[in-house]
Amino acid sequence: MANLWVRKSIEQLARAIRRRIGACTANFWVRKSIEQLKIDANETGEHSLKRTLSALNLVTLGIGAVIGAGFFVLTGHAAAENAGPAISLSFVIGGIACAFAGLCYAEMASTVPVAGSAYTYAYATMGEFIAWLIGWDLILEYMVGATTVAIGWSGYVTSLLRDLGIEIPARFTASPGTVLIEIPNAVADKLHMRHGWSALEGVSSLLTNNGYNLADFSQATAIFNAPAMVIVALVTALLVIGVKESARVNDVIVLIKVAIVVAFIAVGLRFITMDNWGGSFIPANEGLFKYGWSGIFRGAGLVFFAYIGFDAVSTAAQEAKNPQRDMPIGIIGSLVICTLLYCLAALVMTGVVNYKQLNVPDPVAVAIDAMGMKWLSGFVKLGAVLGLSSVILVMLMSQPRIFYTMAKDGLFPKVVSKVHPRFRTPWITTIITGLIVMAAAAVLPISIAGELTSIGTLFAFAVVSAGVLTLRIMQPDVERPFKAPWIWFTGPMGVLASVGLMCTLPGDTWIRLVVWMAIGLVIYFVYGMHNSVLGKQANTTAETRLSA
User: Which partner for 113 in 53, 185, 317, 479 could form a disulfide, CB atoms 3.0-4.6 Å apart?
Assistant: First the structure.
C-alpha cells in the first residue's frame, strides 16, 4: 500500500514537472502571427504612435543615421590603424554586406510593418526566445551607437568653438583618464594635425618622429566628457516633444550635411596624389588586421556601424504613412546614397593627406587643411556637428521604440510602453535612454563604444537575414509587397557576411557582448518569460494538453 502511494506521488510530481517545463519552454518558440502584427500596425487611438513619416522622411532619416561618425570620425581611425588608403574598399565590403541585409530588411519591413525592427521580425519567424535576444541586442546597439556619436560630436564642437575663440577646459572634453596634449597652431599646420587639444596616445609618435619633445607641450588628464552629455540631453528633450517635429529638424540637417560632404568630395578630387598612399593603395601587412587585406576587413568591421541607418529606419514602421511602399524605399535608398558618398569621401581623404596622420577626432578638417582650404574648415566642422547631431537623434529615437514594442508584448513592465497623452511619444523610455547614454558618453572611450555598436549591429543583421528566409519557407503565402531577389542566395549571404565581419572584431568586444547578453537572459528568465502576453497563452495551451 505504501509503495502504491509513493508510486502515485512520484507520478504526480513528474506530471507537474512536465507541465511546468512544457509551459516554460512553450514560450521559447511561440511566434507572433503575421496577421496579428498587421492588425497591431493599423491600430489607432490615444495609445498608438502617429503615422506621420513619408518615404522622403524615411530616406532622410536613414541618411541622417548613416552619414555621421563613419565619415566624420571613424574613417580616419580605421584608415590609420587598419586599412590605410584602402579604407574605401572597407566601405565597399561593408556596403555589400549591407546590401544583402538591406534587401532582407526591406522585405521584412514591408511584410511586418510594426515598430521594433529585427526584434519584431524574429518574433514572427523564430520565436520569443530568439526575439528577446535580438531585442536586448538592439537595446545595446542603439545605446552605444548614440554614445559613440556623441563622443565624436564632442570632438568637433570643441574644435569649432576653439576656432571661434571659445575654449572648453580640456579636462571636460574626453573620457576619464585620457591624457591630452595641446598642439600649437604652428605645429598643427606644419604636421597637418588637429589644432588645440588632442589625445596624447594618437599624436605622440607623430610629434616625436618629427623631433618634438612632448614635455614642451601643455598636457592635461580628462575627468569626463561634458559636451557629449549636453548634446544627448538636448536631443532627448527634442524627442520627447514629438517625432514629426524631430523628423522636420532632421530633414533640414541632412540637406546641409550632405551638401557639405558633396562639397568636400568635389573640392578634394583635384588635390588627390598617390604620394600620400606611400607607394601602394593597399599597404603591406604588418600583422593580423594591421594593413593588407586583413586590415581592410577589420576596417570594414569597425566602420560598419555607420550603416546602422537603414536598420534604424525599420524601427519607424509604425509611424510611416504607407509602410508597405515607403519602408523599402527608405531602407534601400539611404543605403545606396550613403555607400557612394562614403567611398568617394574616403578616396579624397586618404589622397590629400597621408593616412597615418588621420587618427584624430576630426580627420575631415585635417584633410581640408592639407588642401590649403582653411576657409572651408569651419563650414566642414559645422557640418560635422550637425551631421553627428542627426545621427544621435536617430539612435535615441530608435532605442526607446524597441523598449516600447517589447513592453507591449509583456517582456518589460507595462510602464515602459506608456505613450505621452499630448506628444504621443514613448516619453518614459526616451528619458531613461537619454540618462543612460549621457552617463556612458561622459566616461567611455570612442573605440570601445564603436566596436560594441558594430558587433551588435552585425548580430542583428545576421538574424534578420536568416529570419526572412525562414519566413519564406514557413509562410510562403504571406503577402509581401516587396520581395528580396534571389532569396536563396541573398539570405545566406547576409548571414555569412555579417558573421564574417563580426569575426574580425577584437576579442574584448566579444566578451562585452557575451556579458551583456547574459544579463539579458537573467532578465528574461526572471521577468519576461513569466509575463509574456503570447507566452501566457502558450502556457495555458500547454497545460491543457499535458493535463489531458
Answer: 317
Distances (CA, A) of 181 to 174, 216, 221: 12, 10, 9
Q: Which amino acid is at 328?
A: P
| CA-based nearest residue to 366, from 288, 271, 438 | 271
Percent above pLDDT 90 for the chain: 7
List CB contacts of 65: < 8 A, sequence separation 6 or more.
308, 309, 310, 312, 313, 334, 390, 391, 394, 395
How far, in Å, CA of 40 to CA of 504, rounded?
A: 39
The sheet carrying 179-183 orders its strands as 196-199, 179-183, 219-221
Q: Report the alpha-carbon distance of residue 39 to residue 93 in Å, rounded.
A: 38
> Cα separation of 547 and 526, whole Å?
25
CA gap 377, 163 in Å, rounded = 10
Q: Which residues on adjacent β-strands are paired with residue 53?
A: 320
Cα of 304 vs its chain's centroid, Å: 9
252-257-261 Cα angle (round to 5): 150
Which portions of the chain are predicted below pLDDT 50? 13-14, 16-24, 46-47, 116
Question: Would you state the torsion angle of the CA atoms of residues 495, 500, 506, 507, taken in this order, to the nearest 10 degrees?
Answer: 70
Angstrom distance (rounded) from CA 469 to CA 261: 37
Q: Nine-digit cell at 540?
A: 495555458
Coil, strand or helix at 220: strand
Cell numbers 550613403: residue: 338
CA pair distance 341, 477, nearest whole angstrom = 38
pLDDT, residue 245, reads: 52
Q: What is the DSSP code string of 525-545?
A: IIIIHHH-HHHHHHHHHHHHH
The pTM (predicted TM-score) of the whole model is: 0.79
pLDDT of residue 442: 93
- What are the helix (H) ranges across 128-225? 128-163, 185-191, 200-209
Return the pLDDT at 519: 92
Angle of helix 2-29 relative to helix 533-547, nearest 10 degrees?
A: 150
C-alpha cell at 396: 535615441
Instruction: Give Cα 59 to chain centroid, integer Å.
Output: 16
List of residues 6+ apart from 459 with CB closer than 8 A: 134, 137, 498, 502, 513
Please state, in angstroms and as integers, the Cα–Cα distance from residue 544 to each residue in 524, 536, 541, following that order: 24, 12, 5
Integer-rounded Cα radius of gyration of the chain: 25
Residue 356 carries which side chain, given as an amino acid letter? Answer: K
Report how far residue 198's alpha carbon sits from residue 79's, in angstroms, rounded to the nearest whole number.
Answer: 18
